[in-house]
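Morning run. Coffee first, then this:
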Amino acid sequence: MDTTHCAVDGWVDAIPAPGPRGTATFDLTIRPVDADTLPDDAPDTVVSCTSAAAGIVHELLHGIQPGDLLRVTGTLVQPSAPGEPARLTVDVLEVLDTALLPVLNDMVIDRYGDYCVIFDADTDAVPVFTTSGQWVGLADNPDAITTLIEIHERVTGGDA
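And here it is:
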C-alpha cells in the first residue's frame, strides 16, 4: 500500500457519521482545478476520510454539514483495487467555506400545542403523538393533522 502525507480541499456531500471507537467518517468530494475544461459526465474524485482526533470528531459530528468546503490534512492510503476510494486519516481539519443554507434532515419534528408531529420527506403520512409520547394516530397528509387532533381531543375530553 502506498501512503502519502497530503492536504486536499473538497466538499462534504453527506452528514459525517460516527465511527467505531470514537472516530468520525465522511466522504470528501474533490474537483480538479481545471474542472471547467472536463466533460460534464467526468466523475469527481471521492476520498473516504476518518479521524480519531477528539476536536476534529466533535466538529465533524456537530458543526459540519453537506456543502461545506474543507481542507483536510493527513495520511492518504491509495486504494488496493481499482474503483475503490482512497482513504485519508485526517489530522488537521480547516473549514474553508460553509454551505449557504443549513441542510435539514429527512425528518422534521414539529409541535402543535400539546401534540408533536413528524414530517418525513419520503411520505405524506404524518405520525401524531402527544407531547408526553402517547400515540394519537397517523394523519394521511399534513392537511389532516388538525382533524386528527380534534378527534383525539373529543375522544379524550381534551386530555393530551
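The first strand starts at residue 3 and ends at 12. Good start to the day.
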